[in-house]
Amino acid sequence: MFSRILIANRGEIALRIIRAARELGIQTVCVYSEADADGPWLEHADRTVCIGSGPASDSYLRIDRIISAAEIANVDAIHPGYGFLAENAHFAEVCRDCHIEFIGPSPEAMGLLGDKISCKKMAKASKTPVFPGSDGAIEEIDDAVEQAQKIGYPVIVKASAGGGGRGMRIANNEVALRSGIAAAKQEAQAAFGNGAVYIEKFLENARHVEIQVLGDKHGNAIHLYNRDCTSQRRHQKLVEEGPAPDVDAKVRDAVARSAAELIRKAEYSGAATVEFLMDAKQNFYMLEVNTRVQVEHPVTEMITGVDIVKEMIKVAAGEPLSIRQRDVQMNGHAIECRINAEDPERNFMPQAGLVEVFIQPGGPGVRVDTHMRGGYRIPPNYDSMIGKLIVHAPTRAQAIAKMRGALDEFRIAPIKTTIPLHRRIMDSKPFIDADFDIHYIERLLKQGALIGSPAAPSKASDARSHRR
To answer: Out of 16, 207, 252, 292, which one is annotated catalytic?
Structure first.
């Protein structure tokens, strides 16, 4: 086992990794930017190293500075968390060249699965269901037009190295396809340094369901069942839950097994998530593989009891997975709400500044993953997510009720957050009935159903919401 690891990240995921490492008897070193000099998570690390100014391009994305900090602190391994360099195969390769273990997949596995085109080819070989569409990158637009005519419109143009909705265009006809390919290539090149794009059949009313998988360096791979991430806005997830509601058990298990087989064939070690879209007939189609720990990993931890971050660390140290597939059991239902410092009333404008009040909810089955506290000043340089509220209960209906209560307890001021939005989502009929698709949040927002004071069981609670 490692004696000391460096955490190349910030905020709640940095604190989550510190906690897992501490339980394994491992010391931690946190790098930080000047904007994060007063980050509460730094107080829990054994050592901290400043690696640059506030912009991520001058700090958390600087491979040379992170490696220098790792060498100065004499660490055995680096955990990248999520975001920043977590899915950067070059970073993983530099770590290996410097004889520092990367807590994640090998550069080869990351490159294979992180590139959507090569991943799709491997998925077909693993009998993982994929969308009909082009088998490789689009070289000639006329070829893409011909392919679209075969599979039928609408189609979607996707960046091979994409993510977060960038490098994507939906086309309902040939004119839109031709312009969409050009625009997607340009956007992908600017965002990822890779302008390769491909096309697939587009599902207009789909659910987003993903499979959590784990692999080790001994050829073992397991799945930890699924999560539903249908509740999203502009391709950004807001609410995640597990297991995905109302999915036939035979279909669920078959898709989960195929996802585990996919990462086994890729000789993948660590945590990964295989993402799918599911249509109304419960046909699954693979979207991509995220080669890192996911923001929503606590959902799976709550329903399986498996500590995903600890498994990542142990696997990177060469240990086999501590759990076998037959030992994985689901228990109850979990829901996670991403708490973002954004103002839904002002088109989700990010909120930076001093947090004067920060009071977390509690009680049985309530978990809050956050780095926040009262008196902390949110810097303007990074992602707006400031925490995750997770609840667990025996049934989905009970989990929704528990989440409502936890959201009512959560107090953050004067910064605006997405807490009122989540409270209304919990009361929305599409969410309660699990009769939803990936566009339902945007439809409700257009209707004004999720904007304003959150629904709540009492006038007193409404008054508190107004003050917030």
So the answer is: 292
